[in-house]
Amino acid sequence: MPQPHLLVFSHLRWDFVFQRPQHLMSRLAAGYRVIFIEEPVHDPAGPPRVETRRVGPAGEIEVMIPFTPVAAPGFDDAHLPLLLPLLERELTQREIRDYLIWLYTPMALPLIAGMHPRALVYDCMDELSAFKNAPAQLRQRENALMSAADLVLCGGPALYEARRGQHPNLHCLPSAVDAAHFAPPATRPDDPLARRAQELQGHIARPRLGFFGVIDERMDLALVSAVAQARPDWQLVMVGPVVKISERDLPRRPNIHWLGMQRYELLPHLLAGWDLCLMPFAMNDSTRFISPTKTLEYLAGGKPVVSTPIRDVVGLYGDVVRIGADAASFVAACEEVLDEDAASREYWHGSAAAVVQASSWDAGARRVRAWLDEVARPARPDAPIIGHALRAA
User: Fold this and answer.
1) Domains and CATH numbers, the chain
2) Can you give the pTM of this predicted structure?
3) Which of 88, 146, 182, 332 could form a disulfide with 390 if both were Cys (CB 3.0 to 4.6 A apart)?
């Protein structure tokens, strides 16, 4: 039998930071024909259209990027008159009859009103309503999605506890790691990735305290500035795209280095050149339920980590991650790590390796496949081709 399709509607773009959606879909593509549908791109000059491309080692995932002249963010309702006919055409051309639907954002719910999937999944990886510029109707739409979904996943224990009792088939699927990818790279100095890492940070003195990830309202920029000010001999290497905040808001000091967004393949090479890793998250509504993927990625690279007291970080990794609640304690935790003796560091390495070994995306994807098998309704050979009813819906 041909593999069923898995239609994924995501608020995160495939080429953005490589994180939970990319990890899971790359693995689920072994059993499903994944179509990853991104939010519309605003194009005031061009006609409404959908551009597609293949990603993955064998091009096993198809990414759809809609373009519309509508100047509205995300899957806003203003896009619907143009977006529904575009999706109808694209999906009808593919003659899709057997499919499941996976939503990363409740804002895409109106787009699937005319579809009849074998299962509907809501992957609640974050509390999106607490993020900056969240749509006003997001909470109401999420309530509707929670009622309609066959399976709901939560991105970490804190979010799972907040959602407990809201759905009969609710599961906690915490962040995991591709340990082999982030392991210290054993490459020659002339390796292109090693050379690029050297170009970006080879001139930066040691010790280097590094961060990679999205730089937005969840980062405590005042803490970053305070650490740099307290220890001007430390070099803070900050890697990642700046979104939803202005680059003018970033603290500028001689020992803070903003390197911008870098390729996923390059991150282990940058990580290898750091002395410890930072997670300077703000303690606010937008971070109340986050479960940072980078925690395990840092640990897989063999690097010690200092974090603010994010609930899931303390609960899941408190034994191997040092915590600083304010600038003074954060700096003190970093000093303790940098002054650690060889025997203490060796003991830490063993504990961190055990945490990493227990948290793989491969194991997480296997759990997801089992849950999908449980909730998916039987395939219907006479099912209609998807797409014909979208505009009517």
Assistant:
1) 5-175+361-375 (3.40.50.2000), 179-357 (3.40.50.2000)
2) 0.93
3) 88
